Amino acid sequence: MLKYVSTRGEAPAVTASEAILNGIAPDGGLYVPAEWPNLALDWEKLKNQTYQEIATQIFDGFFDDFSVSEIDHIVTKAYGQQWDDTSIVTYHQEANLTYMELFHGPTLAFKDVALQALPHLMTTAAKIQAMTDTMVILTATSGDTGTAAMRGFGDVPQTEIVVFYPEVGVSALQRQQMQSEPASNAHVIAITGNFDDAQQAVKSLLAQRNLVAELHEKNKRFSSANSINIGRLVPQIVYYIHAYAKLVQQGRIAAGEPVNIAVPTGNFGNVLAAFYASQIGLPVRQFIVAANENNVLCDFFNNGRYDRRRDFKVTNAPAMDILVSSNLERLLYFASGRNTTEVKGYMQALAERGYYDLTAQTRQALQQFVSGFATQAQVTQTIRAVFAETQYLIDPHTAVGRAVLTQQAPTGPTLIAATASPYKFTETVLAALQGEALAGQVGLAALSQYSGTAIPKSVATLFEQPLRHKQVIAPQMMAQTFRQEIL
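Structure for Threonine synthase, as requested:
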């Protein structure tokens, strides 16, 4: 049976269901597979399979303490009528470039792909472990994770979900999605700090033993919907396999031909899923890590130093406004040859002094990764240029990826993750296209009229919904507020 171990090496190995329920390992590390599942990807078979069929295979491989019927149930619940396209993921072709449109779920962002599955993975894992506690899902969000998590976990029995998000930086639509969330088990709180403040406080809360004990007394326990949870990460592997299979089916690539994968990157989960896909058989030439002006990852891949000691910038690609990319720890684990002492040293250095330098050997192991960043002006220019040249509408995060692709100019077929619908960011998209930033219902209507595209059904009446969550607190009040909401 496949086991999951901590990146920091000081926690016992666990099964998939235990890793999903725990979220984070007891030593503060992140769970990674102790070995890669042997899935023997057959592209001639995969090219004719549905998204759900491919998801079933990947889930079977990584979550092998779940039964076949349990996996079938999870996939059916996750990828059904709540998607506005039965294909789940669709594709847009531009010469040698393929956009993976990951935004057809209920909240119009790629996070839906995993967060429609995670609640069912968790509730099934609880049954496997004979756990009767209420799961308290604690999440920091830069905008997309929170809405997708609430839509996934909303009114799911035996769960409470607490979402902290930065007051400044989220789009009008993201804010409306969060503040109008109707689920009775959702607790949504804005903070006056930034995403890193929220994420750091969430990690701290998850690690507080006295708080864990207080929850235990009330038959509750923590878990996480952030991509630190392996149950978030594995579902994201599926769309890279599906995308490659579709390119083979269309005759755009030969089976076994390597592709480049470009990913707009903040917390590093999406590009890490592409790396995981490569470890189970996806042929990849280069991983192109696209950053915005919070370009800590760009510097890291170009000079080998991770340095968070810099000003945090609120940009027009807010879901990527992050200086501490949690999932990078998982990549370092594999790049270092599973050296948990080395990884723990990096994480301690980051916490204590704000930076760390890779060993020459580990840096050498990351040669497949290249990185660049896009300024806010380049994001705007890219949205405008792509629409002018191809009449294709992209959101600001996808524009970051497209701009960095232009800089890197990789050879050969390339996949780019289109991570959100442009309708989530009408202010930025309309400012780029017509010079006027319009938000709310007015923005949705204006973007539809300008582009000749339809407003997605899931947000057509969003701005008519009442606001239910208006609380704003200072970051240092997060622990106290959490206690008031949950205990």
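DSSP finds 21 helices and 15 strands in the chain.
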